Amino acid sequence: MESNQRIGHGEAHAKLILLGEHAVVYGQPAIAIPVNLLKMHVTLTKIRHGQFIEDSDEMRRRLELMEDDFEGIRQLILRLLLKFGEENMPFSLEIDSNIPRGRGLGASAALATAITKAFYDFFDSPLEDKELLDFVNFSESIVHGRASGIDAATVNSDKPLWFVKDQGMETIDIEMPGLLVIGDSGIHGLTSQAIATVQQKLRENKAEAEANIERLGDFVKQARGILTSNKVYGLGPILNGSQEILENLGVSHPKLDNLIDAARESGALGAKLTGSGLGGVIVALAANATDAIKISQALAKHGAQNTWIFSL
Q1: DSSP secondary structure, 22-59, as one string
Q2: Quick one: which H or E segment has residue 235?
Q3: Which pLDDT tens digit goes with each residue over 205-259?
Q4: 151 and 270 assigned to the same domain
Q5: Residue 60 phi/psi, 5° resolution?
Q6: Helices and strands (H, E) in the chain, number of each type
Q7: Parent domain of 238
Q8: Residues 139 and 228 in one domain
Q9: Residues 99-137 as b or e (16 or more Cβ within 10 Å = b)
Q10: Domain identity same for 182 and 156
């Protein structure tokens, strides 16, 4: 590599939907929080020949031969190349990430964000927030269907976000000493199937399903006041109540249920799945660091593939 060779860098972090998953699709609010200890780094370099993507698993793929799982990213890169008038530019795009894919932690949105930032950095072009969100949501809509925008916004935010579909977002200043423990089931979440499951519930018993969705929204509204008033013990029942509704909607999973039970039995104030469900991760609330470590150990003992502890 030449010492004066241009390089573009981009970074983003993971996200976690604390409350409101699924209900947010139907106009209820959701609260999403950044997970800064899980990061996505992208480096864009111009090379002599070819267009390659290289990830932290040491896999090297030609852009035109990427798997279907990466179609959103492939289309994003093509759009960015077109944006800068360099459709045929040979490049290497290196991905370094510790965000697990397919777990509801925003890995695809973080990757799209970091790639977009890397291209703008490479071409030394200013990037407005709206333009960034447009590119990321373009990619996300290919990956997941119509994107709500909550993932794209949270992976680029330093603060928790309050989100209502078609009404924009606002940041929340959380004043709470509790810690969150994430437990990875090791199972890929099934977003499209989970969405279809909720839709089926609505067809089978519309009144009951709509009542459950409204209750999820009510929990989110209650949580906002608790999060901003240092009432950590008030949040636990809301997490537990939300999990009960998500189970009724059919989007939990036996392994998630097992991890949630383990977290509660080891001292969690509350625990629930996060994201689309049918796999993915759970989140548990701990009152202090000692409890968080105990919960993390219990999750590992009960089969969690990985755990992470971070403050609210």
Answers
A1: TGGGGT--EEEEEEEEEEEEEEEEE-SS-EEEE-TT--
A2: helix 232-248
A3: 999 999 999 999 999 999 999 998 878 889 999 999 999 999 999 999 999 999 9
A4: no
A5: -120, 125
A6: 9, 11
A7: 174-311
A8: no
A9: bbebbbbbbbbbbbbbbbbbbbbbbeeeeeeeebbebbb
A10: no
